[in-house]
Amino acid sequence: MLIVMDNHATQEQINNVTQKIEEMGWEAKQIPGGERVAIGVLRNTGAVDPAIFIDLPGVRDAIPVSKPYKLVSREMHRENKKIILKNGEIVIGGDKIVIMAGPCAVESEAGALEIARLVKEAGASIFRAGAFKPRTSPYAFQGLGETGLKILAMVRDKTGLPIVSEATDPENCDLVEEYADIIQIGTRNMQNYSLLKRAGKAKKPVLLKRGMWATADEFLMAAEYIMSEGNHDVILCERGIRTFSQHSRNTLDINVIPYLQKETHLPVVVDPSHAGGKREQVIPLAKAGAAAGAVALLVEVHNHPEKAFSDGPQSLLPEDFVKLVAELRGMNFKV
Ligand code: PEP
Ligand code: MN
């Protein structure tokens, strides 16, 4: 249930509605809006009767929310969410396609800085690289950990590019929150509820990747976990799902982009790199994602992909990345 207050509702009237919700044993969540306050009713087990609220002073409407997810839903929040970085210089969900680019992992100080300079020059506005790497094999490179995060902070200082980097458990989420500008939660951790709850307490935006096996609604429920802890700056990332196809690592679910945009006000980002898994698929998938409405792209780029510690085969070369940006501009996207 969403209780929409009148434009001129007083604080006392808002408090009165909140108190009524709490008396019923539910949780009240104020949702700030441009013109008027709305109050979401959460943690109700059955349907909420609008009659409880509709005649209270200052209440304009009581709208049943039909979905299991509430805070993420467009029913609760009509306007698109914008994620603002660098005092408004970068807006995810604004009029430009924001490109987050960089290697899969931080491998060395010099390497990270060089790639960051190349992608910045080509049009990227956020640098991506993992310091904690969730790998299928326990023997594969696991990331540089805090050393990697320190390198990323240095890259930000030298290039001005904000950093997105992955947290793989609640403990390293503390470190990622300290050093990075956006906390990434990877596909394998989409239902790691203790990590989702920890990220929900963070003071930084969270880029949540869709589980490779997850339905769109499970994806939205994972985002709801983060928001229910108080962090409303959530970015959803479609990164390809498992299908029977053998011609690509995963299948980019283009359909999910308009579905998510109907269901939620949260920004939707596409990762063409993990979807395709092969360099030659990345540019077409990135363009398809943008054409379908993604507001940002997360792209792996490496200057020596043949030597990359992880995901070399899907990493664009710097010159491919330049080509991608040019082709997006040719499609009339602002980058
Ligand atoms: C990554 O972004 O490098 C990554 C590990 O992504 P995913 O969780 O989508 O596999
Ligand atoms: Mn990767």
Describe it.
With 335 residues, the chain is an alpha/beta fold. The chain has 2 domains: 2-63, Alpha-Beta Plaits (2-Layer Sandwich); 83-330, TIM Barrel (Alpha-Beta Barrel), CATH 3.20.20.70. It is built from 11 helices and 14 strands. An 8-stranded parallel β-barrel has the order 7-8-9-10-11-12-13-14, surrounded by 7 helices. It has a 4-stranded antiparallel sheet with strand order 2-3-1-4. A two-stranded antiparallel sheet has the order 5-6. Helix 5 (170-179) links the parallel strand 9 (163-166) and strand 10 (182-185). Helix 3 packs across helix 4 (146-159) and helix 10 packs parallel to helix 11 (318-330). The longest helix has 14 residues, at 109-122. The relative contact order is 0.12. The model has no long low-confidence stretch (mean pLDDT 96). Bound molecules: phosphoenolpyruvate (PEP) and manganese (II) ion. Manganese (II) ion (MN) binds at residues 104, 274, 300, 310-311.
Question: How are the SSEs ordered, and which strands pair?
Answer:
Layout: E1 2-5, H1 11-23, E2 27-31, E3 38-42, H2 51-54, E4 59-63, E5 83-85, E6 90-92, E7 98-102, H3 109-122, E8 126-128, H4 146-159, E9 163-166, H5 170-179, E10 182-185, H6 193-200, E11 206-209, H7 216-228, E12 234-238, H8 256-263, E13 268-270, H9 272-276, H10 279-291, E14 296-300, H11 318-330
Parallel strand pairs: 7-8, 7-14, 8-9, 9-10, 10-11, 11-12, 12-13, 13-14
Antiparallel strand pairs: 1-3, 1-4, 2-3, 5-6
Helix pairs in contact: 3-4, 3-11, 6-7, 10-11
The structure holds phosphoenolpyruvate and manganese (II) ion.
Manganese (II) ion binds next to loops.
